[in-house]
Structures are given as structure tokens and as C-alpha cells.
Amino acid sequence: MRPATRPASRGDLVPSAVLGLLGTRGPTSRADVARALGVSPATITQVTKELIARGLVAELETAKSQGGRPGRLLGLVHTAGGAIGVKVTADHLAIVDAKLDGTVTTSSVRPFDPDAPDALDRLAGAIGKAVADHGGNLLGVGVGIPGSVDAQASGVVTAPTLGWSEARVGDVLRAALGVPVLVENDVNTLAVAEALYGAGREHSTYVVVTIGRGIGCGIIVDGSVFRGAAGGAGEIGHIPVEPDDGPVCRCGSRGCLEALVGEAALLRQGRDAGILSGGQGVRDLRAAADAGDDRARDIFTRAGRLLGRTLAGVVHTVDPEIVVLLGEGIDAWPHWRRGFEESFRAHLMPSRRSVPVVTEPWADDRWALGAAALVLASPLDAEGVSGEQGDLVRARLHVTDGDAS
């Protein structure tokens, strides 16, 4: 279970964290809020009194008690804020407008060319329209990018798949939009979203692994994203699996995990096996496996076996409480599982073999919601990962709807 979060030194964090917790978890008792945030019940009593007086929080029905006086649940009077989330890819943008509880109110996809000379200005223009259309109190914009990001607050990006090297995404967007902007590796955004809405709500150390076009990994340690020295931690898709005679990876090395089990690799294997024609995709490969084609099933089984062996090493390194699998390729997981489970458990030390692995369903807007979660999680950021942009988000969270500009 998730241990209490270490309290932050910033005095504004507790009331913001209370609002963020109620927004993402729904009605909660004062005692449970205190436990979740790792602060004293007396502090929560005083903070909630002020929030109730400001009309942001209300007492709801009485909660069941294990003995003693029943407590009352606290809930948001209204949506205290929302966020725009953006997922940047090599050919399109996915943009969502999300409430504090993670509800997506609008979702859109538009073409995007990262190679264009004015790509960042076009990105700002696309997000600017979503900002203008937002109703209510906009807390900020979160952007998920498939690459390394130096820090969420500064947002300097190196993303080979986009052709970007040290692109100052954060500076450009903040200047154009006039709202807080947080930028992060896209898989890390999913790991943050898990802390708010998924399996991470009950765990403090876990890994999120995505399968699809590539293989990615977000690492949460003691409730915070583990980013590494330059923001590039979690690149498990480039762990060498068959370095001597494996296929060339897009990173330039041979035999990386992604070069063997990513979408392009599965399609290549499907064509080589005579299962797919030139115009068919991974859905056709899955359909063949669903229909009982042993050649297609063998491709997925081998992919699962390689992924399992690699993730065993990740588990030994990180020691997570749980592993979460998701991504565009998760719908074919029943076929991956045949090779994965046996290989994964067999390569774990006996003391780690019981680590749970869960899969979660995938929706096209999940990446963008993960980006929005960067903003929505800022009130709970006791480690200061979001920097000064997180401070600006928290300041906006205290603004009532009537005061919002």
C-alpha cells in the first residue's frame, strides 16, 4: 500500500493537495485525507475549515465508522479546475480538456509535422485554440513527448523520433499561451496518471510499461517519477536483447528490445512469415492470431517471451510493488501472455516471483489524459518535481470560478 507522502515545506501545498485529492478520489473523510497526505489531522481540520468557508469544499454524508464518532465525507463543491493535455507524435497531436477528477470533456486529433521549421509555433497555435475554448479555471497545460525532457518546468526536449534536439518546448509554449506549462516524457505522463486514476493510487513504487509502436517504461519510486540524470530514465526499449545478430534499431544499435517486439518488428515478422501483405497492419496480425494462425501466435509468443525476460531485469533493478502494462498494443495481450508469464516468472529471483502484473484497457485519448495529469497531479507534488510551474498551478487552484480569468 502507498505510504504517507512526505510533507512539503511550501505552506501552500496542503490546501492545494486537499483539493487535488478530493478531485481525483472523490468524497473522502478528513482522517483519510490526513493519512493520504501524511499531515496531522489537526492541520487537515484547519485547512478544510478554510476551504469550506471559501466555498470550494463541502461536507457531505456521514461516513461509516469503525467505532467512535462517525466522520463526515468531504467533497468538492464544483470542479475546482481543469487542464489541457497534449500528446505529440511524429504525425499528429492528440488534445484533451480534462476536469480535476480525470473526466475528459473534449478530445480532438489534428495533423502535425514536427519537421516543419515553425513546428513549435504550430504546436503553440493548436494548443492555444484549446486554451481559448476552455471554460472555467484552467490550471495549466501538460505536454507528453516521446523523448527525453530535462525537467517538467523548463521543458527542453530531445526527441529523435520527432527530429528535435534540445528544443525549448516549454519556453515557447509558456510565452505563447500565458498559462503554466509542464512538459514530460510521454510514458512518464502515463505513470503520473496511474498515481491519480489507476493502480498507482494504492502503491508508491511501480513501473508502467507501454507496448505498441515502441516499448516504453515510466518508473515511480516512493510516489515520485524517477527521471534519471537527464530525464531519460526508463528507456527499456533500448536494452540490448540480441546485440550480435539482431536487427538494427532506430537508435542505431543492434538487437534492442524494441527492434524485436515493437510494432514495426511484429509487422516485419508477419510479412516474412507470409501472414501479412504490404498494406496490412498489426491489427491484421492480431486477427490472424485470434483466428488460430499458429504462425501469428508464435510471433506474439516470442515477443512476450523477450518482454518477460527483459522486465524481470527491470523488476530486479527497481523492486516495484506492481507492474502495469498498457498501450496501443495491449489488445493483443492474450497472445503475448503465452510467452510472457513463463519467461517473466522464470527469470525472477524466488523472492520476486509474486510481483503482480496488471493490464489496463487502452483508449486513443489515454496519452493526452496522461499529459493533463502532469498538471492535475501538481497539487500532490511534495517533491517539487514540477518546479515553479507547479507553484503557479497550485496558485491557480485556489482561485474560485468567480475569480477565474
TrEMBL record:
Domain HTH marR-type per the UniProt entry, residue ranges: 17-59
InterPro entries, alphabetized: ATPase_NBD, HTH_MarR-typ, ROK, ROK_cs, WH-like_DNA-bd_sf, WH_DNA-bd_sf
GO molecular function, one term: DNA-binding transcription factor activity
Gene3D superfamilies reported in the protein's UniProt record: 3.30.420.40, Winged helix-like DNA-binding domain superfamily/Winged helix DNA-binding domain (1.10.10.10)
Keywords, alphabetical: Kinase, Transferase
Keyword DNA repair recorded: no
Membership in a protein family: Belongs to the ROK (NagC/XylR) family.
Protein's UniProt name: Sugar kinase
Species whose genome carries this gene: Actinotalea fermentans
Classification of source organism: Bacteria, Bacillati, Actinomycetota, Actinomycetes, Micrococcales
